[in-house]
Each structure stands twice: as C-alpha cells, then as structure tokens.
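Working notes for the structural subgroup meeting. M.R. asked for a predicted model of this chain before we commit to crystallization trials. I am recording the input and output together here so anyone reviewing the notebook later can reproduce the run.

Input as submitted:
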Amino acid sequence: MYHAPLKDMRFVLREIAGMEDIATLPGYGHATPDVVEAVLEEAARLSAEVWAPTNINGDKQTSKIAGDGVKTPDGFKDAYKQFAQGGWTGVTCEEEFGGQALPWSLGMAVGEMWQSANLALSLCPLLSQAAIEAIEKHGTDAQKKAYLPKMISGEWTGSMHLTEPQAGSDLAAIRTVAKKNGDHYMMKGQKIFITWGEHDFTPNIIHLVLARIDGLPEGNDGLGLFIVPKFLLNADGSIGARNDVRAVSLEHKLGIHGSPTCVMMYGEHDGAIGYLVGEEGKGLRNMFTMMNNARLGVGQQGVALAEAAYQHALAYAKDRVQGTKLGDKSGKRVAIIEHPDVRRMLLTMKANTEASRALTYYAGGMVDRMRRGTDEKEKEAAALRADLLVPLVKAWSTDLAVETASTGLQIHGGMGFIEETGAAQFYRDARILPIYEGTNGIQANDLVFRKVLRDGGAEAKRFLDEMKAFVKGFAGKPSDDLDAISGALSAAVATLEETTGWMIANAKSNTDAMAASAVPYLRQFSLVAGGYMMARMAFAAYDALNQSGDEADFYNTKLITARFFAEALLPYVHGLTAPIKGGHKTACQIANDQF
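Returned structure, recorded in token form:
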C-alpha cells in the first residue's frame, strides 16, 4: 500500500524548490512552515487511507457508460467527495474565488500523492485545475464569477477537449465548428480521448473546448477556446437546461481503466452552446495556458507512478524468499533484496525517482518565482528557466516512469506478469504518460527548436554555467562521495555543452538532423539536469550531517543514492553524443518503402 515519502518531499521542497524563499514572495506569506507541514501531513493521510484503497478496484471494475452518463468504479465518488470537501482542488488557486493561493511547488508535492495513490482518479482534479487556470487568465469577469467559485471548491469539475479523429497533435486540422449566435456560439463536432469528459461525481462539468470559428481562415488562426458547460446556467447562477454535449462512448484502454476517456459529441440536435474565452483566433495560444501546466503535471505523474512502483517492488523484494546469498555456503534461503542484481535494480528505481522528483519540484519553484517575484529581471529569468524545463520534466519523468515500472515487474519475476500482484498495473498505467499532453517526441522538438535554438542557446548556456559554478563549490570538501559526484557531473556538463554547441551550429543547415537528434538530446539534457539535482541534494545532505547529525540515516542514504546516480546512471550521457551527432543520418536517408 502506498505511503507518501514525506521526508524526501520536505527535503526537496526545502533544498531544491527553495520553499523558505518562496514563502517570502508577495501573496505567499501564509505558507509558513507549520502550514506547509499540515498540508503535507493531511494529504499523505487522505492519499493513503482513502485514495490508495480504490486504485486496484478502479483498474478491475473500470468506468462504464450508464444511460446518459458514466458510472465510475466503486469508491471513486466518495474519494473525490472527501477530496473536494478538504478544499484540495483550490490549493494553488487564487483566493478571490475561494482558493488557498499556496505555492505551486507545494501543490506539486500534494499532487504527487494523489497520483501515486490512484493515477486514474487524480486525472479528474488535474484537468479541473488546468481549466481553472485558463478561465483565470483569459476569461471575462462574468465568466470568472460564474464558474470559478464552484470549480475551485470542487463542486463542479473541468475538462479539456482538443483531440479529434483526424487531428491528433495537429490541432490546425480541427473540424469541430463554432458559429456565432448573439452572445454565444453554437458548436457541432466530435472529440476523442477526452479524460473525465463525463462522470457521476458532480452535478456539472465545465468543458474547455478548442474549435474552429465559422468564417475565420483555416489553420491555427481560425481557432477559438470555448467554455461549454454540461448544464447551462440560469441568470442567478443555478444549474439550468442540459447542453447539447454528451459522451457517446468510452475508449477501451491499456491502463488507467478507472478514468473515463470519452468520445464527446457536440450538437447532435441544434448545437452545443459555447462561450468564447479570450479572443477569436487566439484559441490555441489560450489553450496552451492549460497545456504547459498540464505538461508539468504529467511529468509529476511520472514521478508519482515511479514512486508507487518502487514502493511496491521494494516491499516484494523484502518479502520474497528465493535462493541463497552469493558466497554463503550454509544454504540459508534469503529474501531477494539480498541479491546484488535486485539491489542494483531497486537503487536504479530509487535514484531515478528522486532525481526526477527534484527536477519537477525545481520547475515548480521557478513557476512560483515567475508568478510572484517582485524583481522584473528575476521574474523573467525564472520564466525562461521554467520554459526550458517543461519538456525535460514532461518527457524524462514519464520515460523514467515506464522504465521504473518495467524494472518493478522484473523484480517480481514471473509474478510481476500476473495481474494479482498489482505490479502490472503500474506499467500499464504509466505507458500513457509519454504519449498524452504532447508525445515525448514533440517535447524533444520543443526543447530543440523553441527552447534552445530560439534564443541561440542563451538560456541553455545560463543553465550550463550555473551547473559549472555549482561544481566549483565542491572544492575543499573532504568527502569521497562528493568528489565522485562532482567529477561525474563536471564531465557530463562538458559533454552536454559540446552537443548543445553542435545543435546550434547545425541548426540552419540541416533541420531534419536536429529533429532526428532531438529525442537523444533531450535524454542527455535531462540526465545532466537530474545529475545536477542529485548533486545539490548530496551537498545539502553532507552539510546537514556535519552541522547536527540529526536524521543521519536519511542524509547518508541521500549521499549513497546520489553517488550511485553519478557513477551508474550519469555516464550514459556520454554514450548519447554519437546518436545525437550521427544517428540522424540513416533515419533521414532511408526511403519510405525501405522500412
């Protein structure tokens, strides 16, 4: 059963996100240490006692179409009710409409707990939070007043509607059409893969829908973002007539079975009524308010799934007795955690999870500084860093979730392939993460073409320089662990600097090469960034041990884990240089009919 890793979460929030500094920013003064601790403790309790017990049942029972709606698995509705009553939807939302306005980085730690406990269920509030943010940023005052209080309280939920059968990631090909009709629009069309587009939790669902506006040109400039409520509102804000939008079927999926993934139909009769959010033709830009935060949220899901899979595998390894310890002639059978290769796998799972958690919370800290900072230059710097980190967090954390869940299956052996152990669910649930909210190939292209090449590598260079300056701070520390960690990180940064220079130098002459090299480059960049996070945590752990000696076991474990990452995982950085610089050639040269 899942239990939140609170010690590690507190440590990362303090040492990597910089929670103490964040709490000094305007509007975050109420994020005092006692408040932060209370939030973490209560979220840990609810995730372990209420949400986690619903996870296996949700996988087995699944959500199902029932009449004109969706029946969710037993226990889901009550778990959501307790979540909403606790005010958890509004943890990071603005106080004006009922939110708690706590730091984004703290919200990420809390969100990780829901996602580890039950990923399928956690997608509902994740999509609500994305819809809330889009209305907060781009909605009219009337729209905010009508929808935000009930969405932030959890009384209503939100959802996000982009994909169509003919338009997966190519949103310019959207065919759902909205035609102006007085103060609203009439919408007809169909969307697929709509997460929590229908359910039985709340009396209303506020859909955010991307559609083509009748009369505007084809392509991105013809799109608008619309509020399409399941039930329309009366003049006094109460729920009125049913809108012409419904779920016509549910997708049958590899994983996240408890989450209803809907095929949505708009306008089977006169048309679904929608209200424009922002300006006509700016729908894609406004939708990306939701997408960018959702991408950080999906990276956070990767951390969460990895943590859950690790806990599950660790418990099994401690309990499963098989074989004798190497070199032991007594014949005594031991738990498999005593076997070196199992220990290697467990430590790989642990190290990757902690590195990706640190990188994710680090990105959350940058979002906080970007939102609440008082110095314009510092806010701009935080925004640039957060922008650079989004594809790393989304792609690397989710790739690691799949790898970690797969390693968990390996530790279980043949029993991992059997559904009754529960290990397979983590793998099946994790497999969607590298796909949705922009596939990881799209994230890699985003990193290369928008985040690195757009400014000639300026922000990437700032990040590299920061890492190099940090390594210099290790000098004079009498520690074999820190020496090993700093040496490995220094070499990795030099390799990333070399490949980044190559990408910039070749950008204009061979765009196909950049695109074909983007995925290994993102992997290399992420490994180095993860190594930097592990080194920072090792440095903080070393100082904590020398200052007080309290929690010695925790801090020693941090040093061991960071050194393992530096010696066993970070060296993969160097092997990626050849694929980045040369692996693209055959991919671009081979003819279609040669595949």
